[in-house]
């Protein structure tokens, strides 16, 4: 469908970039991000010349609380954790973003980040200067609508996180945490550690070990060191209860 357009756009990309980037920079590649896929062909082509495909390695900090956001990132297969960090070094996850969305949107020039963005699952994403994205947003069209829709979904996710902390059990919150990543993963296998989960949920590691062990005994997951495989997703959703809504 987009073959002719891909040829014309790719021709404007330096040959060195085409040779070193992996996966290949293309309209089809950009459309792995669902927000970008929601744009019209014309809007995506206009935006495409401003997009850079970049590797997003686990642990990489895209920006920290209080920093200006020079770039926004549209993940394709990476998963990014948005975290609120306290002055004493503590952190808790408030939302997670994958191929459905974008992080680092800055709607005015002096805007500062109100949370930190940390890559949790390695992959790739398309990077764009915040100033360019801001200008495209104020031009209206499908991009503005997609960004507003995504912002609304982030608020809903944040509200659900708060409600889960207040009313959900640790087991429910663990199920939700795993399901949120499963929604944004290309397989049912997740590269996570119990320590990472405990830190993001703000609970003791022993509590996660106990809950994960119970879920494994009941056949919902299989846990090996550093890897969780979700075996029965439907049972996980039932166990999460009101703490979880699909992304």
Automatic annotation (TrEMBL):
<dbReference type="InterPro" id="IPR050397">
    <property type="entry name" value="Env_Response_Regulators"/>
</dbReference>
<keyword id="KW-0805">Transcription regulation</keyword>
<dbReference type="InterPro" id="IPR012318">
    <property type="entry name" value="HTH_CRP"/>
</dbReference>
<keyword id="KW-0238">DNA-binding</keyword>
<dbReference type="InterPro" id="IPR036390">
    <property type="entry name" value="WH_DNA-bd_sf"/>
</dbReference>
<feature type="domain" description="Cyclic nucleotide-binding">
    <location>
        <begin position="35"/>
        <end position="104"/>
    </location>
</feature>
<protein>
    <submittedName>
        <fullName>Helix-turn-helix domain-containing protein</fullName>
    </submittedName>
</protein>
<dbReference type="InterPro" id="IPR014710">
    <property type="entry name" value="RmlC-like_jellyroll"/>
</dbReference>
<keyword id="KW-0804">Transcription</keyword>
<dbReference type="InterPro" id="IPR018490">
    <property type="entry name" value="cNMP-bd_dom_sf"/>
</dbReference>
<dbReference type="InterPro" id="IPR036388">
    <property type="entry name" value="WH-like_DNA-bd_sf"/>
</dbReference>
<feature type="domain" description="HTH crp-type">
    <location>
        <begin position="168"/>
        <end position="234"/>
    </location>
</feature>
<dbReference type="Pfam" id="PF13545">
    <property type="entry name" value="HTH_Crp_2"/>
</dbReference>
<dbReference type="InterPro" id="IPR000595">
    <property type="entry name" value="cNMP-bd_dom"/>
</dbReference>
